[in-house]
Amino acid sequence: MTDGATGRARAGAKTVADLLRRRGEQIAQRWADLPFFQAVFTVTRDEAVEACHAVVDSLSAVAESGRVDDLEAPGFQPIREQLIAMTASRARSGLSTAQVDREVGALREAALELLAADAPEEAGEARVQLVTLFATLRVMVVDTMLQENQEIVLRQRQQLLEMATPVIKLWDRLVAVPLIGMLDSARSQVVMENLLEAIVEHKATIVILDITGVSTVDSLVAHHLMKTVASARLMGAECVISGIRPAIAQTIVQLGLDLGPVTTRASLADALEWALERREGRDLPTRGNP
Predict the structure, then answer these.
(1) Domain that holds residue 248
(2) How many CB atoms lie under 10 A from the CB of residue 99?
(3) Within this chain, do residues 107 and 243 fall inside the same structural domain, yes or no?
């Protein structure tokens, strides 16, 4: 950008900053009746107007700095948390990112109308700066909403993982983890965390890992199982893996996988029988103690 163009851009941005300061009240009053603010601040209209003033003041500060196309401009910082809350509210209402973007885009029109009325001779470059400023605001809102949506998806995924990997107390100091579906790194981590918490909570000494519902067993699945077994042992619990169907047994042999010194049983019933016998064997010597 040449020096002349840079000077015109700065002058245009200065005109926009002056407009937003002088006409801030009128802009805020108009915005308060638009969906982006009206649908979020439903208690009183004054609450919406106050929120509008905060956005107008931030935009004025950004324009004053001349960084109308910079998402990291300091002027945007005061309203980031507010925008996060507002976009989250609109998302919870069922609006898509594109719909929220249109609502934010509607805010620009009030400022453009006032600019044309107040400074017609300077409207050319100032209009460019104003449009750029609101385009940056829209980008920030969309980016904020996408981040919020991503966080929601991650939270829901974590909740689904936890729901899909329950730890069930079968008996005193005996718990079971029925695994169903694929066992990847993320899920195995959840299994391990939930299991270790359950061992502490129930003072479990025996754990049954039932893989009857695991679709395939490969070297990665075996690795995850061994890590889980090792972690449980460090917590003082013995493990037995059940659900070793013929097809899975053949796959383990063909892959040359070594489950190590891990007790295995063909079915959950067999594993439960082993666990109860093991438990009785542990408890018997202590029953004669006073």
Answers:
(1) 168-284
(2) 13
(3) no
Distances (CA, A) of 12 to 62, 121, 127: 13, 11, 8
3-state secondary structure of 264: strand
Alpha-carbon separation of residue 93 from 39, 41, 151 (angstroms): 9, 13, 17
Question: What is the end-to-end Cα distance of the chain in Å, rounded?
Answer: 91
Q: Can you read off the two tokens belonging to residue 283? A: 């408890």
Q: Can you tell me the mean pLDDT for 101-108?
A: 89
Average pLDDT over all residues of the chain: 82
pLDDT for the residue 285: 34
**Which residues, 6+ apart, have CB-to-CB distance to 118 below 8 Å?**
19, 22, 23
Residue 289: pLDDT over 60: no
Amino acid identity of residue 12, one-letter, is G
The pLDDT value recorded for residue 122 is 57
Residues 131-151 have a mean pLDDT of 84
Q: Mean pLDDT, to the nearest integer, of 243-269?
A: 80
Contact between residue 129 and residue 68 where contact means Cβ atoms under 8 Å apart: yes
The reply to whether 177 and 140 lie within a common domain is: no
